[in-house]
Design goal:
With 485 residues, the chain is an alpha+beta fold. It has 17 helices and 18 strands. The model has no long low-confidence stretch (mean pLDDT 89).
Length: 485
């Protein structure tokens, strides 16, 4: 066939070819969404978009709807056993919690058994946790630990700003490298862009081994970020919680957005689980395997707190964090307290809180009166009525913006870490939290929550219903995108 004939054939038949290709592509995309999207609303939304927008819908689904990170992370599962320490000497069965906390141990046993079904890590005895409030307490403790490091330092953070605080961390990490300490720093590829110049380039220039978690040129996984905050020094001292490395967490320092938060210093066998999670993330990001005594030191008991690390993310077959939250809420006998900067629970969690309240459980939810993200605040207000109408008490705290993520149940169980009560944390991000079974530690968290409640005002249903129509429409529209906030 001559070139001019080929050109003529294309002119005559391209609409039919285009229609066939578009139809096949759209059919494939719709079937893929129906088969692989775990959330029914997400599957229905994508399938509807694909069918109603042939071609365009399929392209959008290919770019944004397919979770390629989960595929890559699932392939990584085969290597994870390399990072399972021999912690059997410190392990405790969930059934043993009933006797240890008698006569109030039944609820704790139920939580422990439920979480064990979705978390492939044991409960560990012999831990100690120090509560570090705001950057004034957290950052000096972290910098001092880094300063005293002799063997290794691992650090992962969503945001690592190169501000006055970030410079102090960079200096100490660089000095640690100079004295022969093995250092690895992992920063989220989106979070690192919150500040210019990039701390990643500065770290590399100073000789500190650093990597970015999922470079953002992978456009299809733009929202799948590591939100974890973990620092482990010499394999025996760990830090985790809600704080990014950013000067705005130091309330006494000049900052455009002062941000209150809580971080934690951990010792004991639980630190091994923090290091396991970092090692998995580092291998995922760089291909380098961190093994041996330099990274995983012998661990000893040093307290009475029973702990377990809960790593969750889009690579997991089950939503471990959502599962743990529901188990804790349904097992509560007296009281549930939640502190979170962003509160946009899905229907299952909202219903669990409502059911708990209707059976006589005191449910207190503490959120900031003014969010740092307007769209998130609007979507949150549009959904809060679901829990308020069933008797849950929602409290609004005054500035500074409260970024803490805490949960306590019955004064005996608590959850600390990086997870917010929104879809981004519970479905799209990689998160790390610790559950703790201990009355003394939980009492410290409850005291912290009480201090927040003493300054907060209660949000009631009448106030929500009295919002002007335009505001309610705005909030309702924001709620439509809540699965991605």
């Amino acid at each position: 066939m001559r070139e001019d004939q080929v050109f003529e054939w294309i002119l005559n038949y391209w609409p039919y070819v285009f229609t066939v290709v578009t139809s096949i592509g759209s059919l494939w995309a719709a079937i893929h969404a129906v088969l692989w999207k775990r959330d029914v609303r997400s599957a229905l939304g994508w399938a509807g978009l694909i069918i109603l927008s042939p071609g365009i819908g399929a392209v959008l689904y290919f770019l944004f709807g397919i979770n390629r990170v989960r595929r890559k992370a699932m392939a990584l599962r085969a290597t994870r056993e390399k990072f399972r320490l021999s912690l059997s000497a410190f392990a405790i069965a969930p059934e043993d919690l009933e006797d240890k906390f008698h006569p109030h141990g039944e609820a704790l046993m139920q939580i422990g058994k439920a979480v064990s079904c979705v978390v492939n890590r044991p409960l560990l005895i012999g831990n100690h946790i120090d509560l570090l409030e705001n950057g004034e307490e957290a950052f000096p403790a972290m910098l001092e630990a880094i300063r005293q490091a002799q063997h290794s330092i691992t650090l992962v953070s969503y945001i690592f700003s190169y501000d006055s605080l970030g410079k102090a961390f960079v200096d100490e990490l660089a000095l640690a490298v100079e004295r022969g300490v093995s250092v690895r720093v992992l920063i989220d590829a989106v979070g690192v862009r919150y500040h210019n110049p990039s701390v990643y380039r500065v770290l590399k220039r100073r000789g500190v081994p650093a990597a970015l978690f999922i470079p953002i040129h992978h456009i299809s996984v733009f929202n799948l970020r590591t939100h974890r905050k973990i620092c482990v020094v010499d394999g025996v001292i760990g830090f985790t919680g809600g704080m990014n490395i950013r000067v705005n967490h130091v309330l006494s320092a000049p900052s455009p957005l002062p941000t209150a938060d809580v971080h934690f210093r951990l010792e004991g066998p639980i630190v091994g689980q923090l290091q396991e999670v970092f090692a998995e993330d580092w291998l995922f990001s760089t291909g380098e395997s961190l093994q041996g005594e330099r990274w995983f030191r012998p661990l000893l008991t040093c307290g009475d707190v029973i702990c377990r690390g809960i790593a969750d993310g889009p690579d997991e077959t089950s939503h471990a964090l959502a599962w743990a939250l529901q188990a804790a809420i349904s097992s509560a006998k007296k009281r549930v307290r939640i502190v979170t900067p962003y509160f946009i629970p899905d229907m299952a969690l909202a219903m669990a809180l409502g059911v708990a309240s209707t059976r006589g459980i005191e449910v207190d939810i503490i959120i900031p009166s003014r969010s740092n993200l307007k769209l998130v605040q609007w979507a949150s207000v549009a959904q809060i009525w679901q829990v308020v109408s069933f008797g849950c008490r929602v409290w609004l705290t005054p500035p500074p913006f409260d970024h803490a993520k805490l949960m306590t149940v019955d004064g005996r169980w608590s959850l600390i870490g990086s997870t917010n009560w929104d879809a981004r944390s519970l479905r799209l991000n990689f998160e790390f939290n610790c559950e703790a079974y201990d009355t003394e530690f939980t009492a410290k968290l409850d005291a912290l929550i009480e201090s927040r409640l003493s300054q907060a005002r209660r949000l009631n249903l009448d106030e929500l219903q009295a919002r002007p129509l335009g505001v309610r429409v705005r909030d309702g529209l924001a709620r439509l995108v809540s699965p991605y906030l």
